[in-house]
Specification:
Length: about 140
């Protein structure tokens, strides 16, 4: 076993490595948090129109191809979990947005949430593309 000398003191490799980990000079770092993007489609009623369902399906299909989560929130969903149910990335309070009746919230980690009024899917996708910085086609 090779020994190292610091100020005339013998330091064995295991002890040296342990000291380096504690001091942060060795790359034993926690994994970085996952990046996530989402659209929360919300409505203040349980029943939605055929148009709503059609637009929601268009938006969901286009966004999921780009790794953007699309989540539906009904009137009972004042707080929405983004990510896996057992360990969500974050939980967002959307209760203030129900005053609009229905619409969409664009959310990305580290960026301010943006409200988009309910509209046809191609308009919502155009706005979402600008917010997320990606191309979104129906």
């Amino acid at each position: 076993m090779k020994t190292n000398y610091v100020n005339n003191i013998v330091i064995y490799p295991f002890i040296l490595f342990t000291m380096m980990v504690i001091s942060g000079s060795v790359g034993c770092r926690a994994q970085s948090e996952p990046q996530w993007r989402a659209i929360i489609a919300f409505t203040d009623t349980e029943k939605v129109s055929e148009d709503w369902n059609w637009f929601y399906a268009d938006i969901k299909n286009a966004c999921e191809k780009k790794g953007i989560l699309v989540i539906h929130a009904g009137p009972q969903d004042k707080r929405v979990a983004i990510g896996p149910a057992d360990e969500p990335f974050t939980v967002i309070d959307i209760s203030d947005y129900f005053k609009h009746g229905k619409g969409y919230l664009f959310v990305v980690k580290g960026k301010e949430m943006e409200y988009q009024k309910y509209d046809q899917s191609f308009i919502v996708l155009k706005k979402a593309a600008g917010y997320f910085g990606v191309s979104l086609d129906e």
